[in-house]
UniProtKB/TrEMBL annotation:
Residue intervals of the Ribosomal RNA methyltransferase FtsJ domain: 43-217
Similarity annotation: Belongs to the class I-like SAM-binding methyltransferase superfamily. RNA methyltransferase RlmE family.
Gene source species: Sphingomonas naphthae
Underlying gene: rlmE
Compartments it resides in: Cytoplasm
Gene3D superfamilies in UniProt: Vaccinia Virus protein VP39
Protein name: Ribosomal RNA large subunit methyltransferase E
SUPFAM superfamilies: S-adenosyl-L-methionine-dependent methyltransferases (SSF53335)
Function: Specifically methylates the uridine in position 2552 of 23S rRNA at the 2'-O position of the ribose in the fully assembled 50S ribosomal subunit.
Length: 228
């Protein structure tokens, strides 16, 4: 790999089998302070700092005893919970294989599997205090389609949360293009007492990602339209 430092900035040149786009991505990674900090502090991804910053603002981890991490890979968010609330029961689920994390139970399965809510709740020994999701749907390069697919994933996460949260619990999820759309906000307001949006400093400025923070679960599970 060819690196040309310029006033502390690492510049990556294109090389055989490396496209200009991949070179730009690698250069951004090498110069990202959150990436360097994550490596130094033992977090699996820079995304850990998004949760840390959101927790500072919304006290999401205060007093939690059971936490579910939807789409846990690679595990940075679960690491944050483990460090901040070491006695909490943490369960993660993902379609992808995830390297073990001490103190975290991980299932390789789809969270939309009918068996998932009961399995995760049973594993934790009760209802969750927090359901968190840093998932985004696989992109196809068409902005409107990508947005709709990710919003559908967040909506599915909200229905899942309504099955597994205790009254008063919270739901945190990644959304795109400035926040949740009207239908999703309406759903969350039916389920929770407060619904807010935030973009933590660790989220890149050029990224369209935001986060929706729904707190104060009202205790009534929502029924998806196709089941009502």
């Amino acid at each position: 790999m060819s690196r040309t430092p310029t006033r502390g900035h690492v510049r990556v040149k294109t090389a055989r089998n490396r496209t200009a786009a991949s070179a730009r991505w690698l250069e951004r990674q090498l110069n990202d302070p959150y990436v360097r900090r994550a490596k130094a502090e033992g977090y699996r991804s820079r995304a850990a700092y998004k949760l840390l910053e959101l927790d500072e603002r919304f006290a999401l981890l205060k007093g939690v005893t059971r936490v579910i991490d939807l789409g846990i890979a690679p595990g940075g968010w679960a690491q944050v919970v483990r460090r901040r609330v070491p006695k909490a029961a943490i369960v993660g689920i993902d379609l992808l294989p995830v390297d073990p994390i001490d103190g975290v139970t991980i299932f390789e399965m789809d969270f939309m599997d009918d068996a998932a809510p009961a399995l995760l709740a049973e594993t934790m020994g009760g209802k969750a205090d927090l359901v968190m999701s840093d998932m985004a749907a696989n992109t196809v390069g068409h902005a409107q389609t990508d947005h709709l697919r990710t919003m559908g994933l967040v909506e599915a996460g909200a229905y899942f949360a309504s099955d597994v949260l205790r009254p008063g619990g919270a739901f945190l999820a990644k959304v795109l293009a400035g926040g949740a759309d009207n239908d999703l906000v309406a759903l969350l307001k039916r389920l929770f007492t407060t619904v807010k949006h935030a973009k933590p400093p660790a989220s890149r400025k050029d990224s369209s990602e935001w986060y929706v923070i729904a707190q104060g679960f009202k205790g009534v599970p929502a029924i998806p339209p196709d089941e009502g």
